[in-house]
Amino acid sequence: MPNVNPLDEAACGLLEVAADGQIVAANAAFARIVDRGSSALLEMRIQELLTRGSALFYETQFSPSLLLRGRLEEISLELLTPSGERVPVFVNALLRRLDTNQEHRVFLAVFAARQRHRYEAELLRSRKEAEQLAELVRRSSDAIIRLSAEAEIETWNTGAQQIFGYSAADAIGRSLRLLFSEDAFVDLESTFSELRRGRDVNREALANSRQGHLIDVSVSLTPHMEAPGTLVAFSAIIRDTTRQKLAERALLQAEKLASVGRLASSISHEMNNPLAAVTNLLYILNSRISDPETKQLVQTAEEELARVSQVASYALRFHKQSTGRSEVNLSLVVKSVLGIYKARLQASGVQVVDESSKCPPLFCYENDLRQVLLNLVANAFDATRFGGRLTIRCRGVNRSKVPCIRITVSDTGTGMDRTTLDRLYEPFFSTKGIGGTGLGLWISRDLILRNAGLIRIRSSRNAAHSGTTIVLWFPRDV
Ligand code: ADP
Ligand code: MG
């Protein structure tokens, strides 16, 4: 029966060495590591198995410190195979004195290090990857946040700081409610059941910034589950989509405008011919009657018709190119604009104050100015349906040392709230329902800019002094 050494079954190399390095015993695993037969090993000293550097190290440091401490762990050495291949190993060593002859013996456990080197390299690489990933998250322009199962913010990156305006110190530990208004949050709340079921959730929502702005965002939530059904945390990637939304809205507005423009020009075109016909017919009628009462009726009809023509040519006109610029007597323009609204303003009990007579002439596109004033007076009229005062003032002034004409249109009407003031120049923004187009101020601002002017609006809803003041400045020498 062959003599089976139980140590041969060990996975690591085991070695017994005399004080001078003579190998006394070696198991099969060690023989495999150094690629030699077990019996051949018993003829050798361990130094012969070491590379030159390792042999030197063995003699000068390994042995002396082993003698000193009695044990050594995780020492790395290099062994040589007969073909000259170097095998890196880790060695644990133990010094024992044999009772019988007081001789020292060294017991060595030898582990091939290749595998371990590979693990270490792997570990290093994955740590580096994790660091790179963390850096990516830190610097992302999207908000990437980790939250507890109770929606408490646990991490906060640069993107989150940029989008929401809170620093990490401000945000960490707070609830997700910090970022989402009640309504939006209710919506998010309903998504928690989805998260608990382990599903991702993607939503569009309105978020609040620290400065109190509303931000359009897209939110992607990913649950982190432990056992099925146990939500331990979740992560949120939040992207600011405000710009994208604005662009989409602008595109939509542009499309709406184009169709309104087409509609308006076709209506005014269709209206002009019958209007001209009726105007002529009324003129003929007027010349054929002598009864003063009937004549008065026809004249009223003519006046009303003139108003319809005005509306057709002004209100429905879209950016029709004005004829060239000229010296314009603003007082005359103001008079003609007020003329159009005279009857209606009177009927509403609005007192009209016209302080434009002393205004110097302005070099501008006359039709633009007429259109602007018409829009402003129309708005003032709408705001003073139950009486009040409308004042138009035109003056030559200096604004930042530049000679200007300042036109002030103020009314004591209803005034505007904050939301209206914020959205005034948006096309199609109107608080008048079907009665408004929401184009008046939007077009006016364009026309003002075309004449190098500026517009400023102040308004108050305070019951004691409600009303709106609109100030325009136009430089005189452009
Ligand atoms: P529209 O008159 O067709 O509504 P505008 O662009 O002219 O469109 O005006 C936009 C909105 O601004 C109005 O709906 C109104 O709410 C507000 N507004 C403008 N001028 C005044 C004013 N003088 N007084 C009160 N509100 C005003
Ligand atoms: Mg208007």
Explain this structure to me?
This protein is an alpha+beta fold and 478 residues long. The chain has helices spanning 28-34, 38-41, 46-49, 52-69, 114-139, 158-164, 168-171, 182-196, 242-288, 292-314, 330-347, 366-383, 418-423, 440-450; strands at 13-18, 23-26, 71-80, 86-97, 104-112, 143-148, 201-208, 214-225, 231-240, 326-328, 350-355, 362-364, 388-399, 402-411, 454-460, 467-475. A hairpin with a 6-residue loop joins β4 and β5 (104-112). 44% of the residues lie in helices and 27% in strands. Strands 2-1-5-4-3 form a five-stranded antiparallel sheet. The chain has four domains: 6-117, PAS domain (Beta-Lactamase); 140-240, 2-Layer Sandwich (Beta-Lactamase); 242-320, Orthogonal Bundle (Helix Hairpins); 323-478, Histidine kinase-like ATPase, C-terminal domain (Heat Shock Protein 90), CATH 3.30.565.10. It contains 14 helices and 16 strands. The structure holds adenosine-5'-diphosphate (ADP) and magnesium ion.
Integer average pLDDT: 87
Uncertain spans, ≥5 residues at pLDDT below 50?
A: none
Distance between the termini: 118 Å
Number of domains: 4
Number of strands: 16
Can you tell me the CATH class of the largest domain? Answer: Alpha Beta
Major sheet: order of its strands?
2-1-5-4-3
Largest sheet: 5 strands, antiparallel
Q: Which topology of the largest domain does CATH recognise? A: Heat Shock Protein 90
Q: Which molecules are bound in this entry?
A: adenosine-5'-diphosphate, magnesium ion
C-alpha-based Rg, rounded: 46 Å
Q: What is the beta-strand fraction? A: 25-35%
**Share of helical residues:** 40-55%
CATH homologous superfamily heading of the largest domain: Histidine kinase-like ATPase, C-terminal domain
What is the count of helical runs?
14
Global shape: rod-shaped
Structural class: alpha+beta
